[in-house]
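Figure 6 in text form: structure in, sequence out.
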């Protein structure tokens, strides 16, 4: 039986891989948010994009996710009212979704 002393140290300190993909959830109702939270909890995406035409609902769900980010190791979460904003995403210059306004 191998002991801890017999195992090389590099096997104990595996570097975590950060996902580099982007997942878009269309619709932030009960099902869409269940998917979004599951994606965040399982750390499946580097970027999670939320899309919904009802901007007030989208803003409320984004605020909930920002509050949850204190307790979860979250990916970058972006939002917008149409799918076009996803094409404008640029890692260096992204501040927030063009259609998501903080009041």
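Output sequence:
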């Amino acid at each position: 039986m191998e002991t801890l002393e017999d195992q090389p140290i590099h096997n104990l300190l595996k570097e975590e891989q950060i996902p580099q993909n982007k997942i878009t959830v269309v619709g932030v109702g009960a099902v869409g948010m269940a998917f979004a939270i599951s994606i965040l909890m399982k750390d499946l995406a580097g970027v999670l994009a939320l899309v919904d035409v009802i901007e007030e609902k989208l803003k409320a769900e984004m605020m909930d996710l920002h509050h949850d980010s204190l307790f979860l190791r979250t990916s970058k979460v972006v939002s917008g009212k149409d799918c076009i904003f996803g094409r404008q995403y640029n890692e260096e210059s992204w501040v927030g979704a063009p259609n998501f306004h903080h009041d």
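Caption detail: Residues 90-103 have pLDDT under 50 and may be disordered.
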